[in-house]
Amino acid sequence: EPWLYGSSTGISTLGILTSAVFWTWIWGPIGLVMATPLTVCLAVLGRYVPDLAFLNTLLSDEEVLPTHSRFYQRLLALDAEEALEIVEEYFADNSLEDLCDTVLLPALSLAEQDRHRGELDEARQGFVHQTMREIVEDFGERQREEAKKVAAKLADGAEKASLENADDAIKGAVLCLPARDEADEIAALMMAQLLERRGVHATVISPRALSGEMMEQVEGSGVAVVCVSALPPFAATHARYLCKRLRPRFKKLEIIVGLWQSGSVAKKTEDRLLASGADTLVATLAEGANELERLALNAEALKSSSDGEA
Question: Is the separation of the CB atoms in 43 and 53 below 8 Å?
Answer without folding.
Answer: no
